[in-house]
Design goal:
- The chain has 264 residues and is an alpha/beta fold.
- It is 41% helix and 17% strand.
- It is built from ten helices and nine strands.
- The strands form two sheets. Strands 3-2-1-4-7-6-8 form a seven-stranded mixed β-sheet, with helices on both faces. A two-stranded antiparallel sheet has the order 5-9.
- Helix 5 crosses helix 6.
- It is globular.
């Protein structure tokens, strides 16, 4: 199975996300047999050379919704929409990119860059049975209906015929979507309940949910490890403050240990 990550060089905190991407890829290789693939909108730099040096397949690509995003950024006078969205919306193109490379019959995993693998999830994947994707809960483990798209098991064959209609739908509600949760908002609205399956919470475990020895994929949803200095000094986004609990710092310690061990 291939595991996809997306990254845009113009994104805020690019180098911080680049460090997280390294841990994501190296922990993936340590704990699983999956092969990483990075969909990258950017030029040659240290991170791009690191990926190549570690044998990571890199697909250079600009998101197909970029013209819509550019119009929205220009019309609202908010250029930050473009630098944020150019990477986030790459996810909507994954099925097409797979089909173009002869991977149209495969299942793939998509993960945000801010994840860390703590075990092999291979035995925990649900049967998709023709569904487009499987996703885990966002806010609380017991609420799968409010799902998070930071980790997605994708059935490429089922997603492919829905990809272009989904992009058109997302383009039509883009002004609304960027105010809520970007493409995640559109996924929740567009796909019928019978088109997706729930993932176990352990496959998209949030650090603020507490310790969990059974968690396979840790997703630093909300505050990131590099934000600890700002958290300590009180400079933290109001939405992140309630999530910076003791278990978040404990998971950050694990992230640090893996970073020191694996990233040289």
């Amino acid at each position: 199975m291939r595991c996809f990550f997306n990254l845009n060089e113009s994104a805020p905190h690019f180098w911080n996300y680049g460090e997280m991407l390294k841990v994501a890829i190296l922990s993936l290789r340590k704990h699983t047999s999956m092969e990483p693939v990075v969909v990258y909108d950017g030029g040659d730099n240290y991170l791009a050379r690191w990926l190549t040096g570690y044998g990571v397949e890199v697909i250079h690509h600009r998101c197909r919704l970029l013209p819509d995003l550019e119009r929205l950024a220009s019309g609202t006078g908010n250029p930050s929409l473009l630098v944020h969205g150019a990477g986030i919306l790459l996810k909507a193109d994954l099925a097409d990119l797979c089909a173009e490379r002869g991977w149209g019959g495969e299942r793939i995993l998509f993960c945000d860059c801010d994840v860390m693998f703590q075990g092999d999830p291979a035995g925990d994947w649900p049967a998709l049975d023709g569904a487009c994707f499987a996703v885990g809960p966002e806010d609380v483990p017991e609420a799968p209906e409010r799902f998070n798209t930071g980790v997605m098991l994708i059935n490429v064959a089922s997603m492919l015929p829905r990809a272009e209609p989904f992009r058109k739908f997302l383009a039509g509600i883009l002004a609304e979507a960027v105010k809520v949760s970007w493409d995640q908002h559109a996924y929740r609205l567009f796909f019928r309940r019978d088109e997706w399956r729930p993932l176990r919470a352990e496959l998209n475990w949030k650090p603020y949910w507490g310790p969990n020895p059974g968690a396979r994929i840790i997703h630093f949803h909300g505050p990131k490890p590099w934000m600890r200095a700002d958290i300590a000094s009180g400079r933290i986004d109001a939405a992140h403050a309630p999530l910076a609990v003791q278990s978040f710092f404990e998971w950050c310690d694990r992230w640090d240990a893996f970073f020191r061990e694996a990233v040289r």
